[in-house]
Amino acid sequence: MVERAGTDRLSCRLSVPDRMHGADDRTDPPVRTGSSTTSASRSRRRSVLIGTAGIAAAAGVGIAYTLRGLPDDDHETDSLSWERDPNLIAHRGFAGENPENTIAAVDAATTDTEATGQRADLIEIDVVPTANDDVVVFHDDGLSERDDGLTDANGIVWDTDTETVTSAEVLDSGETVPLLTEILDAIPSTVGVNIELKNPGSTELRFAEKLPSSELAEQKELWRPFVDRVLEIADEYDNEILLSSFYEAALAISHERSTYPIAPLFWGSMDDGLEIARTYDASAIHPPISMIQGTPFFDKSNLPAIDLVTLAHEDGRDVNVWTVDSTQQAKHLAAAGVDGIIADYSDLLAGASR
Asked: What pairing do the DSSP bridges indicate for beta strands 87-91 and 284-285?
């Protein structure tokens, strides 16, 4: 793979400043750059390359996944125009339309058709290990821990052998749990991939918080082998990669051992999320819609009056918001200035100038 050193904002608006290094507990392992050469320095960073926006195909992939009861746009939403054109990020391959995190989902999300939906700019997927240390694309810890059963198999993914995991049928769709390599094989090189580092195979993780250095060091040991396997796989592909996670240690290892751009996912503490983003020179932040000021969804009763969009943009970072499931939400978020919407449906930006 050829490393792309960016000095300007690309169409996805992910900034690509030089990496800033502070005094920390880093070692100096080989840094993966996505290139077969080793001449690039640590200061060079990959930036997510957005493919030309088109139309996504949901036709023929699980009619059961296309049904939703979205609220009608209110009068205020009708008055909003698409002054901004945020990126469309297919959450698990548009999980509201397709069997999530499957080859069929990414095929639908990256194929141009005459359907009403749009081709995704990036595909968001989740990764976890199996008992054989293979990397699979799957969201949950358990193969069937949801009430309706995500798959027809049982067991914790990282305690289950690869053959069993990859034979498990997802949501009665005929699709099975794929390896990360299989998913990346199915995504055109012109489409970016947001790989969420979900779990390295442990129940001892510290979720969505900025950690003291001693505790961070312990957590990094849990994440390092798994992150290394993900990076080794990603290096074999030409897609631009964005690594995200709720876990500081996963992002710390990614920052140390690669030049792929990273993005912390926010949960309870906006301050912790911002501090993690600054510590590891993140290219983007991924907050929930409830953290976006200037929208009807902002949780002002439980959150501080922090304008995440403004703060992130002042720091040169994008704001990609999860999880968006209606055009009403998308319009308000675009008006608030977000850079990307992580969406369950492919038609949420219909009417935007893409």
From this structure: unpaired
Out of 35-44, 267-276, 326-335, pick the least confident: 35-44
3-state SS, residue 155: coil
Fold of 75-343: TIM Barrel (3.20.20)
Three-class secondary structure of residue 230 per DSSP: helix
Q: What are phi and psi of 241, to 5 degrees?
A: -120, 135
End-to-end CA distance of the chain: 28
How confident is the model over 136-149, as a mean pLDDT?
90
Rounded to the nearest angstrom, the gap between the alpha carbon of residue 303 and the centroid of all alpha carbons in its chain is 23
Q: Domain ranges for the chain, please list them.
A: 75-343
Residue type, 138: F
* Structure-token pair, residue 340: 């990307």
Which spans in the chain are helix H?
75-78, 103-109, 162-167, 180-186, 213-234, 248-257, 270-279, 308-314, 327-335
Distances (CA, A) of 145 to 92, 123, 278, 344: 18, 24, 35, 21
